[in-house]
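#struct-help
A.M.: can someone run this one for me? Single chain, 97 residues.
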Amino acid sequence: MLVPGVWTARSAGSTEPLDDSRGSEASSDGYLLAYKRQYVVVDRYFIESLGLDPLDPDWEDLGFDWVRPKHVAARSRLYAKLVACQPREAAWTTRDV
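D.P.: on it. Structure tokens below:
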């Protein structure tokens, strides 16, 4: 679920994170994610729908900010967990033709 009113676009040419998004994320117990060139703050239920644990200590190590993590290694660990929980595609072979 998206946190209402916290979907924002990055300023053209900006390389700085959006301070208002970080503030909203912290005050709403949200998770700052990125979609293309926009930021979105989501709640724990959205994180659970991805198959991730919203209480995983890596989120705190990340600073709850996927875009500009406090510790990049935490984002790498969360990404590995995200990939691991996705359904595996069936292997395609020439026998399937």
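A.M.: thanks! The two ends are 41 Å apart (CA to CA).
D.P.: also worth noting: Residues 14 and 37 are 10 Å apart (CA to CA).
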